Amino acid sequence: MNLPSAPPAASTGPATYTALAPGPDFRHELVIKRSRFITVLRRVGDEPSARALLGSLRKEFYDARHHCSAFVLGPDRSAQRSNDDGEPSGTAGTPMLDALLKRETRPGTRPAADLSDVCAVVVRYFGGVLLGAGGLVRAYSESVSSALELAPMVRRERLGLFTVAVPHADAGRLENELRAAGYVMTGNSYGAAETLVGLAMADDDAVIAAAVARLASLTAGRAVLTGVGTDWVDAPL
Q1: For residues 82 and 116, what is the distance between their CA atoms, to the nearest angstrom?
Q2: What's the rounded Cα separation, in Å, for the pair 37 and 30?
């Protein structure tokens, strides 16, 4: 078989973003002028999941005066919502959302504001001292920002999924060569005459083109890299 003249095209949209690490909700509390601000962060994949967090915290902290919320969803952060829950308009939900959107991570040396798939709820117990509009904005922003500084984070990476069809006798050697070169191996499937060797790599045109060239070298131009989709995986920051 001949290799394609061009590598399979990468998907559009961001290929990486930052998210909370999998696990239980992250909680952090601040006391500002006797008011308690309890921030709860949860990794969420859709709006119903974000609203479920808010609902559960309304039940848990049923006697609190405010349950303000903000969330951002999707690799491109296309879904963004916030709610002041009775605080003066724009003093709670908006600064909370701004804190989520402006939170920077530094994978290497380039800071990136790319946090997504996260819902923040700030539960406020009023302490008897009025903070004023400016004070509320600062308090809700600081509550979320300080929680984000402490919460565990991961990189979400979109990987392209591929298969390579080779004779059964060649599958083991090719799999070992690709693994040694740093590719993620996703398992093999077996037909009557061929083995489909599965692998994954960054969903990036240059990376895919390099894989095509490496396969040409390893198989004397006989193997074809076939795209079968994409998937998101967690990687350390």
Answers
A1: 14
A2: 5
* pLDDT at residue 175 tops 70: yes
Domains observed in the chain: 22-151 (3.30.230.30), 156-235 (3.30.70.240)
**Helix H or strand E segment including 174:** helix 168-180
225-235 mean pLDDT? 91
With beta carbons less than 8 A apart as the criterion, state whether 42 and 119 touch. yes
Angle value at C-alpha 146, between 118 and 142, nearest 5 degrees: 100
Q: In this structure, what DSSP letter does residue 154 have?
A: E
- Quick one: tokens of 71? 């969330």
**Is the distance from CB of 214 to CB of 221 less than 8 angstroms?**
no
Give 9: exposed, middle or buried? Use CB within 10 Å, 0-12, 13-18, 19+. Answer: exposed
**Order of strands, edge to edge, in the sheet holding 35-43?**
26-32, 35-43, 118-125, 66-73, 79-83
Q: Of all helices (H) and strands (E), which one includes residue 167?
A: strand 153-167
Nearest CA among 25, 35, 41, 34 for reference residue 87: 35
Determine the number of helices (DSSP H) and then strands (DSSP E) in the chain. 5, 10
Region 81-91 average pLDDT: 97
3 state DSSP class of 104: coil
Statement: residue 108 has pLDDT above 70? no
pTM: 0.84
